[in-house]
């Protein structure tokens, strides 16, 4: 047994140091989050922001968890930012402990390895008091079982009662098979309760100095009683072999006639309802340790820092921030103080990647107390984005309408809680004409800036002049030569002063006539814009 544990530990340690991508089934991974996302919380990351920040890919990069419970808790953590500095420091200390102490890490890995079965995903179904289905007609099961036993025993004195035994047997068989599919569906998480109990008990006995584990004594005692009640289902699951088939046939016959599955399930359902808070406490403690292990693994694979949280007056300060999903990502610095930031630059120059970098740093700072950066200091803030919208064919909504509805929700959120949002916005209202797009951008950004931290990307250079009183400009640019073109992906202060789009067409060997016509018309339009451009106005 000791040799087997040693081999398991070597395998688990190797996976922890270099986890492989698992392409998880997010409908199962998100099962816990979906059950609790409506509970009060500082923030829940909306689906649009989760998609804009490449949430599923980010999860996959972080996912060095061992157990299915850990996967679900990591997903929940990434979508539930905190505004609790003490809790984040505590989680940082847990990840640091597991990274620096191999013995403690080994104990945690072995304990969590008990919850790797696919069925462990369904433990999340047991965390509420109304978690298990009530079987139709369940109240008749005790009467039917009692009727069969009574007629069977009474037949030894009055043999005619055995006719009743036959009748009860037929009724019970029909009743059993009628409810069998419900029971098989609901018993999956019950069979994993024993594993959850063993994992929680092993973590508690390891005496790791982690607060969630120090509160497990009473919940484990409560769960022990439920584990004993589901022994019948566990025995059946463990005897699925050809050697035990005669015994299994006899056991199945007894269970069918006496409706043992229905009776045991009904008792377990009541017990789970009564002990749901204890089950949740153990579930979340186990998941907490697994999340800390995953973050410790991420830190030893990536250059990271521990975030610092300060007052809003100090703004958001990012130094050497990079995106962990972009190989060889160029790090950049930004200080977001009073004014908002307006980003300009051509496509592929790095505007959207940089905004995602800022959003990922803010998100990870408030979820796992870890930033892919040299330094990060900011106030607590809720991250909302509009980076990758699309039209909606099922609802018949145009791109512009989807944009307008998304921005309306952002405006309402910022009005409800001013000063607590980081907004990352990419080319707003690009689904409409230039004149109205610029006007709508100017109005919306000027409205949002006093109410939130705003970083907005645009191709409309006119916005810089229109918003100069409340936004500062930064840009990304490319270099185009006769022989080559390239991007340096470095953030630069000030507005973009070069235009290389048509030069890039020439570099890509467009017909010379097309390039010449485009250059001539661009120069003509630029002259007309300069002569008729309005004077910058002070935003309302």
From TrEMBL:
Keywords: ATP-binding, DNA-binding, Nucleotide-binding. SMART domains: MUTSac (SM00534). Residues 338-523 form the DNA mismatch repair proteins mutS family domain. The keyword Membrane does not apply. It holds the Pfam family MutS_V. It comes from the Bacteria. PANTHER family: DNA MISMATCH REPAIR PROTEIN, DNA MISMATCH REPAIR PROTEIN MUTS FAMILY MEMBER. This is DNA mismatch repair proteins mutS family domain-containing protein.
């Amino acid at each position: 047994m000791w040799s087997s544990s040693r081999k398991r530990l070597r395998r688990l340690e190797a996976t922890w140091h270099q986890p492989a991508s698992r392409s998880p089934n997010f409908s199962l991974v998100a099962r816990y989050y979906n059950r609790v996302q409506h509970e009060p919380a500082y923030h829940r990351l909306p689906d649009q922001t989760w998609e804009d920040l490449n949430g599923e890919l980010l999860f996959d990069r972080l996912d060095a968890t061992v157990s299915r419970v850990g996967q679900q808790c990591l997903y929940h953590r990434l979508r539930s930012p905190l505004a609790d500095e003490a809790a984040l420091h505590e989680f940082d200390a847990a990840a640091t402990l597991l990274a620096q102490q191999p013995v403690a890490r080994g104990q945690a890995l072995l304990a969590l390895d008990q919850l790797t079965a696919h069925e462990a995903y369904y433990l999340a179904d047991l965390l509420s008091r109304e978690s298990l289905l009530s079987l139709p007609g369940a109240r008749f099961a005790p009467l039917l079982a009692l009727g069969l036993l009574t007629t069977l025993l009474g037949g030894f004195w009055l043999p005619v009662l055995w006719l009743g035994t036959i009748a009860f047997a037929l009724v019970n068989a029909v009743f059993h098979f009628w409810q069998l599919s419900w029971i098989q569906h609901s018993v999956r998480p019950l069979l994993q309760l024993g594993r959850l109990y063993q994992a929680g008990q092993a973590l508690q006995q390891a005496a790791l100095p982690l607060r969630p584990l120090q509160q497990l004594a009473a919940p484990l005692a409560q769960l022990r009683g439920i584990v004993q009640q589901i022994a019948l289902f566990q025995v059946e699951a463990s005897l699925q072999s050809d050697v035990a088939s005669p015994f299994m046939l006899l056991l199945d016959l007894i269970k069918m006639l006496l409706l043992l599955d229905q009776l045991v399930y009904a008792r377990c359902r009541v017990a789970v309802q009564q002990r749901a808070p204890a089950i949740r406490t153990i579930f979340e403690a186990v998941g907490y340790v697994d999340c800390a292990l995953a973050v410790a693994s991420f830190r030893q694979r990536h250059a990271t820092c521990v975030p610092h949280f300060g007052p809003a007056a100090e703004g958001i300060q990012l130094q050497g921030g990079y995106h962990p999903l972009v190989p060889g990502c160029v790090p950049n610095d930004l200080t977001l103080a009073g004014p908002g930031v307006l980003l300009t630059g051509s496509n592929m120059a790095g505007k959207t990647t940089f905004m995602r970098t800022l959003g990922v740093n803010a998100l990870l700072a408030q979820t796992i107390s870890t930033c892919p950066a040299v330094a990060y200091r900011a106030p607590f803030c809720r991250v909302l984005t509009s980076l990758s919208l699309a039209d909606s064919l099922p609802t018949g909504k145009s791109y512009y309408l989807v944009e307008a509805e998304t921005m309306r929700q952002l405006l309402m959120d910022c009005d409800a809680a001013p000063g607590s949002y980081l907004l990352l916005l990419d080319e707003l209202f690009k689904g409409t004409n230039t004149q109205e797009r610029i006007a709508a951008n100017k109005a919306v950004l000027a409205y949002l800036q006093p109410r939130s931290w705003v970083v907005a990307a645009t191709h409309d250079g006119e916005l810089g002049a229109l918003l100069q009183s409340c936004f500062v400009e930064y840009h990304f640019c490319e270099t185009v030569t006769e022989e080559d073109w390239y991007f340096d992906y470095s953030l630069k202060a000030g507005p973009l002063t070069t235009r290389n789009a048509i030069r890039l067409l020439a570099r890509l060997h467009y017909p010379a006539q097309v390039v010449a016509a485009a250059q001539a018309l661009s120069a003509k339009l630029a002259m007309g814009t300069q002569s008729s451009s309005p004077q910058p106005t002070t935003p309302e």
